[in-house]
Amino acid sequence: MLDKRDLEMIRIIMKEEISASEERMDVRIDTRFAEQEKRIDARFTEQEKRIDARFAEQEKRIDARFAEQEKQFNNRIEELSLDWDIRLDLRFAASENLILGELDRVHMNLQSQLDDMRSRLDELTEYYRIKKLDNVNQTLLLQMIQEVERRVEALEKKSA
């Protein structure tokens, strides 16, 4: 059988063997952890790249949508602006036609009144011309009567 010293030696050898085994295990575990950590880091890096690519893709889509929306908005504003311009032009034309029509009506009305006034003026001018001629005739007639009376008186004086 084994004596105490042999047992002690076995125990020391076992302890050394166990320690060496533990160190090998620790090295293997450390190596495996390092490899696992590298794989995890590689996966994280890969995931980050994918996420960055997705973000970039989403950003491009969003930018494209914004550009499209802005283009549609600008087109709509341009359409509305043209529509308003046409409406305003039509309203201005209608207002202009209404004003011109009213001016024509007022012109015709004033022309009619002016024609009436000319007619009345012509009548008054004719009346005063006739009145003047009457006055001239009356004056001449009065002068003739006075001349006749003077002659009659002269004849009466001659005959008396």
Describe this structure in words.
98% of the residues lie in helices and 0% in strands. It is mostly helical and 160 residues long.
Mean pLDDT: 93
How large is the share of residues in beta strands?
Answer: under 5%
Number of strands: 0
Structural class of the helices, strands and pairings?
mainly alpha
| Structural Rg | 66 Å
Give the helix proportion (percent range): over 70%
Descriptors for this entry?
160 residues, 1 helix
Q: In a few lines, what is going on in this structure?
A:
The protein has 160 residues and is mainly alpha-helical. The chain is 98% helix and 0% strand.
Note the topology.
Blueprint: H1 4-159
